[in-house]
Amino acid sequence: MSERSVLPGVRGAALHTRAAGRRRPWNRHLLGYALVAPLVLLMVGVIGYPLLNTVLLSLRDQGVVGSSSSFVGLDNYQRVLGDGEFWAAIGRSGVWLAGNLVVQTIIAFVTALLIGGNGRWARGARTWTLFPWVIPTVAVAVIWQWLTNSNYGIVPKVADAVGVHGLGSPFGDTALAMPALILMNSWHWFPLGAVVIYGAMRTIPGEIYEAARVDGASAWRMFWRITFPLLQPVLFALGLVGSLWSFNIVDSIYLVTKGGPVDATTTAPVFIYNKAFNEFRASDAAAVSVVTIVLLAALAFVYIRVARPKEDQ
Amino acid sequence: MRFRTARRVAVAAVALAVVLPVAACGGSSGPGGGGGGDDKTLTLWHMEQPPNRVEAFQKVIDAYNATNPEYKVKAQVQDWNQVYTKISSAVQSKTQPDILFTIPDFTTYVRPLGVVRPVTDLVKELDQEHTFVEAAKAAYHDDDQYWAVPLYGMVQMLWYRKDLFAKAGITEAPKTWSELLAAAKKLTTGKQHGIAVPAGKNLATDQVIYSLMLTGGAGNFFTPSGEVDFDKPQAVAALNLYAELLKLSPSDAGSYSWGEPQAAFNSGAAAMAIEKGQYLSPFEKESGRPASDLGCAPIPQADNGGQPGSIYYSNAAMVLSQDDARAKGAEDFLRFVLKPENYGAFLNAEPGLFLPLTADGATAPSWTDHEVIKKYRSCVDAMLEQSKTGALFGFVDGQYIDSIGKISGQNILAQVVQRVYSNGDSPAEAIKWGQQQMQEAVSR
Q1: 3-class secondary structure for B255-284?
Q2: What number does CATH give the domain B41-154+313-390?
Q3: Which of A220, B92, B241, B308 is the most exposed place for a label (fewest CB within 10 A)?
């Protein structure tokens, strides 16, 4: 077994030390900078400019998007930070994020383990596992609404058949709407996690498991002592990017509940959308966006500090 | 594993993932669809997405283009949920359509963008030629100008299943709130519900509760000076009735919008519903019952102080061309649509739902000869009659509330319903909350 495959991190650290010891002059990197320049310019254009525009808009009092406005300084921020509905939306975003993170990770992990086998069913499952992922979000929303509709949905029909009568759609219930949406969204996105985890698992050398088996390790012990630790960097990145994507989801929520009932599913992005396009307060929406960016960046920073795999692991 | 590299990649991913979605709020993105068309083509945006409507509108447009006008018309179908964003972007990039279909509150949204041309002379000319229903024009009249040309109307009725009424021994459609409630209770048996009314946070809920508010004398949400006047006993009474009706509706009415009550009605899971004329066309096919089983009646009125009424609004077309010649071309197209010989084909894009707004249109064979209109003629006539007492919040009795879009856009009426249905608030508390929300909405 090679040093590289058994002790991740050691080779990387050594390379870094060597590289730091012989830094090349900046002009040696000129070609590299030139090659990435178009991409950087593109990113500045499509991300930097709208972001700057958002900050500038948040300092004005624009109502309908695109209408005339005047400079109001930090008034919008003062109002946003004192708005209980905004903080409630941030709280619901926390629930949404945590719920999606937990549910998707569990389902993805279980699926990756199941499709990792060599049997015929496992091989076939590798294809159809992707099915929910390729369905457009709007179709997912419709499917789940149909499934749970009390008039023609299969879920209430099955429940009725087993003696649970009067079951209706959870999306109209303040207590059930958020968990139901988390389940729906997790069902839509878990294949991404499953495929990434499955791919990462395939890179773990079989010799490690062989050695563990020779030492008498059980399957459960091998999972916790070999599979899980070696997947940590992948899980870390997946958790980070997946969480941020989940946080920013608007379409799934809006298509099904529009943030209702009684704001039970109004997360921060839905709150921003409502401000901009339903309440016609573009500058307020921009201020909320900026505050949300800061909060999200802080959250991501904390996550990186706390959850990132340590180099000595 | 190269942890420092991984960390840098992670940080970059964070930056991208954080910034990308919210950066879209910048408001300087491209038009996202549509455009001004070429030199001799007028772009028309409409939001009637069902394929049958798209096809029918296209036939009318093709017929117009076949007359070899100087400016031909090209339709682009938009989504009601996205058109607010798209029109703002299009105006910013000067690629707005020449003709934009609208409803009264959407007009109040588009006008501040500064590109809507007054069409006063055209409306007066068409009124003289075809005679518009007064309520159809009024919602587009402000600052002594007309801002859109009315094209088709929509009104709500009480729909009921005559077969289910007969089984329950009910011989007449309810005329009052107490009769409505009594009928709904009597019709609720086993898996059958007396009525299906929506309580989702959507326009469907807004409209059904508003129809009952109108017949309860609470249809005007504003004082003559334009201040919000929503919190009144009549509104509480209407909401109280709605809460009672929701108890007799399917258990997931909290997520209902347009389609679910109709599906429940056609399947026989609900015996009554309150909606517009889209119930006519698919009834026989979806219910498996003869057309004679579909009953319709005016919206029941409050027992005390009730009045006839129903939500009613006209859909219209705004002219956004900034060039005079193009604007004239757009007006020529609208003249063509309202000619009685063409109007029927346009209205029958959704027979029974799209109602004529002109006197000669209502009798035009191009409309009345359609199979659905002939089959349900009594209901169609009842809808035309109901239209005469119809109204829309923000435009009642000649009002024109500029900020009404902020109330309808937030679905405040639907939220009021949800506070009672899902949150357990009393109707009085919910109406009080609605008053505060409306005040806040119009204050800025």
Answers
A1: HCCCHHHHHHHHHCCECEEEECHHHCCCHH
A2: 3.40.190.10
A3: A220
